[in-house]
Amino acid sequence: MSQLSPTNPPVAALFRVGLIGFGCVGQGFYDLIRQLPALGIEVARIAVKTSGKIRSLPTKRFEFDADALVSDPTLDLLVEVIDDAEEALRLVSAALRLGRRVVTANKAMLARHLGSLLRLEAEYGGTLLYEAAVAGSIPVLRTLDAHFGGEPLQFLRGIINGSSNYVLSRMVAEGSDYATALAEAQQQGFAETDPALDMAGFDPRSKAVLLAAHGFGLLVHPERVLNLGIENISPADIAFAAGRGRKIKLVAELLQLPDGQVSLAVLPRLLAADSPLYAVEREFNGIEVGAAFAGTQFFQGRGAGGHPTGSAVLADVLAARQGFRYGYAKLHEGQATQLATELQAEVYLRHPTAQGLAELANTLGLQATIVPGQRAATGVVRLDALLARRDALREAGVFVAALGSARPAFAPVSQLLETEAV
After folding, report:
1. Per-domain residue ranges of the chain
2. How far is CA 385 from each of CA 22, 143, 255, 260, rounded to the nearest angstrom?
3. Which member of 111, 230, 343, 403 has the lowest number of beta carbons within 10 Å of its beta carbon?
């Protein structure tokens, strides 16, 4: 009887990735690839912007022409993780025009240009995935696209910025002031290069725009969305919330209204202990999904840091290798979903001065009740009035937090009801 000689199975070719950017997320992704050789992925080329910068890899591993990676036909996929939204748009658009597979984490670029990028993807046959752009390690976009693509949603509500959540957690748990807590977040590598993107709510606004596209079929420019942040928060605001058994969290809320329009806003909110978001602390993110038939689902995971966000990039790379594409079922259902603008909500509002509070209440048409002993008030205000004055409120040191969800503004609100001295 003849003896069979052993044969070696064929060696699968490595899946070659071009990495554009080597900051926190880029290095996190690279570290994961290095620790998981069985995946068969190779970071073949790395493009960065600045030469001479101290990095964790030898200088010879880096090059400085990202366009060379975009046009390299030997690369199977491009990962774009730079913090320049305009340059990211140029590179991603060029790659899609070549029909390439692209994974990006640039939420600002995506929020401003999602519609045009989707047209490029469809026209040239490329693939665009961006799970890491929304909630760090939480696979929310894949869940919305694949699992809830055909089911109507009633709401999405989430803490989707780990930096601001870290700051709020430190202020509550340790009694830290805002500046100290922000410095800690930056030391931990959780904050953006410009901390205002996180703390003023611009970063979660971009993420909420992406959630709106996948969850409700709504394409909206971020400038039309109200965002107010926590950069003007004070211990008095923390104490006001605690006195009512609540915590302040920066929350993106998307609501399906009875008329079919969608409400979308990013605001600090006073959350009660029965909210699952109440217990989401430090750099963690949490997202509630309210579905018409499945009920409420809750997802929690790390929302900041190189390895958690890098893991979302890796998941997209693996999905793209298997041919996965977003379906955008709700974008293709027919009539375009509209953003609701005629809305009002009950808010807590604090101004640095008593006179400023009274003047602001008049300007906003705020039906207000003064908070005893503080330069603060509660009342109902139109959200479009807050949006129109967003930048002025920030510059004036005003802190605003929602006490309830948005609702249609069936009647205008008018004057300050309480005349008690502030």
Report:
1. 147-300, 343-408
2. 41, 34, 19, 22
3. 403
Cβ pair 296, 290 in contact under 8 A:
yes
CA angle, 80 then 85 then 88, to 5° = 35
For domain 147-300, give its CATH number from 2.170.8.10, 3.30.540.10, 3.90.1170.50, 3.30.360.10. 3.30.360.10
**pLDDT by residue (tens digit) across 164-203?**
999 999 999 888 889 999 988 888 877 666 788 999 999 9
Distance CA 156, CA 226 (A): 16
Catalytic residues: 207
Tell me the pLDDT tens digit for each residue of 331-360.
987 667 899 999 999 999 999 999 999 999
C-beta of residue 303 within 8 angstroms of C-beta of residue 165: yes
Task: Tell me, yes or no, if the two domains 147-300 and 343-408 fold the same way.
Answer: no
Label residue 18 exposed, middle or buried (CB < 10 Å: 0-12, 13-18, 19+): buried
pLDDT at 144 over 80: yes
What is the SS3 string spanning the chain?
Answer: CCCCCCCCCCCCCCEEEEEECCCHHHHHHHHHHHHCHHHCEEEEEEECCCCCCCCCCCHHHEECCHHHHHCCCCCCEEEECCCCHHHHHHHHHHHHHCCCEEEECCHHHHHHHHHHHHHHHHHHCCEEECHHHCCCCCCHHHHHHHHCCCCCEEEEEEECCHHHHHHHHHHHHHCCCHHHHHHHHHHCCCCCCCHHHHHCCHHHHHHHHHHHHHHHCCCCCHHHCEECCCCCCCHHHHHHHHCCCEEEEEEEEEEECCCCCEEEEEEEEEEECCCHHHHCCCCEEEEEEEECCCEEEEEEEECCCHHHHHHHHHHHHHHHHCCCCCCCHHHHCCCCCCECCCEEEEEEEECCCHHHHHHHHHHHCCEEEECCCCCEEEEEEEHHHHHHCHHHHHHCCCEEEECCCCEECCCCCCCCCCCCCC
Contact 225, 338 (CB under 8 A): no
* Mean pLDDT value across the chain: 91
Would you say 32 and 137 are in contact if contact means Cβ atoms under 8 Å apart?
A: no
